[in-house]
Amino acid sequence: MDKRPGGKRPGGSGAPEVVRRILLDNGALSALVVLVVVLAIMSGDFLTTTNLLNVGVQAAVTAILAFGVTFAIVSGGIDLSVGSVAAFSGVMLGWFTTTQGMPVFLGVVLAILTGTACGLLNGVLISYGKLPPFIATLAMLSAARGLAQVVSEGNPVLLPDSLAWIGKTIGEWLPVPVIVMLVMGLVAALVLARTYSGRAMYAIGGNEEAAHLSGIRVRRQKLVIYTLVGTFAAVAGIVLASRLASAQPNAATGYELDAIAAVVIGGASLAGGVGKASGTLIGALILAVLRNGLNLLDVSAFWQQVVIGVVIALAVLLDTLRRRT
């Protein structure tokens, strides 16, 4: 029998191996497709236009937060403060525009600068204070949430009616939160793929010492990275506050965990050096589709958390298998 060198038969790595490689290399996308098909079969309401638009809106805030967290994780770091920074930025938006009577445009700019400043402070603590990202951002998680409570005095802050459109739908088919999500996803993808800072993120995450020896100013780039994370968190906070029609100091509680989960499910490695904005978007959509489908199937919220935990564990396992092959 004719054999190739090494004792393997021709076609020995045929269709099964091709399918296996596709599943390993595109695990998140494959999981999303399978999930959509299964839920469409199990619930007749899932594939309706209204429900799919609802899924997109539900995914928007988590995805925007996750795009920012992608920068931190790709560089080998983490950011636990994005949910609190989002809430603080939303509260400041309400405080600037309603309590202080500032023009809406100026209020939005100042709210974004609030999140940016929080991210910059994280970067300073990590780069120059030598704090581990986990500790620095954990401190910011508490501080930003506390400041949101102080500024709002623990009460929701109403937003001007002119901001309500950010959380609504243009016509019947264009939810503004989804548009913002896609724009921020495009920005994240361009930063990662087309900028010096994006390339530096991968280099630092792959080997920080080697990145330093190759001429990358690691401390400066970490400032950029965490400043970007804070900016994305602020945008997410504005979208969330607009959806709720008020800025609530307790908003986005726990969202940092969903954001990290979306990045990991999307194929990024917590060890750093690996991750894409497109994968993060798919990860956020998986979480939104899961929650939406489980709600349609009347699954308890407690069991939903169990299912999502299992999905995160499987995503990390898939990443481990992919790296071994």
Order of helices and strands: HHHHHHEEEHHHHEHHH
Strand percentage: under 5%
What is the rounded Rg?
Answer: 21 Å
Strand sequence of the main sheet, in spatial order?
1-4
The helical percent reads over 70%
CATH class: Mainly Alpha
What CATH calls the topology is ABC transporter involved in vitamin B12 uptake, BtuC
Overall spatial form: globular
Outline the secondary-structure elements.
Elements: H1 15-25, H2 27-42, H3 49-74, H4 82-99, H5 104-127, H6 133-152, E1 157-158, E2 169-170, E3 174-175, H7 176-194, H8 196-206, H9 208-213, H10 218-244, E4 246-247, H11 255-265, H12 277-296, H13 301-324
Antiparallel strand pairs: 1-4, 2-3
Helix pairs in contact: 2-12, 3-7, 3-8, 3-10, 3-11, 3-12, 4-5, 4-6, 4-10, 5-6, 5-10, 7-8, 8-10, 11-12
Description:
This protein is mainly alpha-helical and 325 residues long. The protein has a single domain, classed as ABC transporter involved in vitamin B12 uptake, BtuC, CATH 1.10.3470. It has 13 helices and four strands. The chain has helices at 15-25, 27-42, 49-74, 82-99, 104-127, 133-152, 176-194, 196-206, 208-213, 218-244, 255-265, 277-296, 301-324, and strands spanning 157-158, 169-170, 174-175, 246-247. Strands 1-4 form a two-stranded antiparallel ribbon. Strands 2-3 form a two-stranded antiparallel sheet. Strand 2 and strand 3 (174-175) form a beta hairpin. Helix 3 crosses helix 11, helix 5 (104-127) packs antiparallel against helix 10 (218-244) and helix 7 crosses helix 8 (196-206). It starts with 14 loop residues before the first helix and ends with a helix. The relative contact order is 0.19. Mean pLDDT is 90; it is low at 1-12.
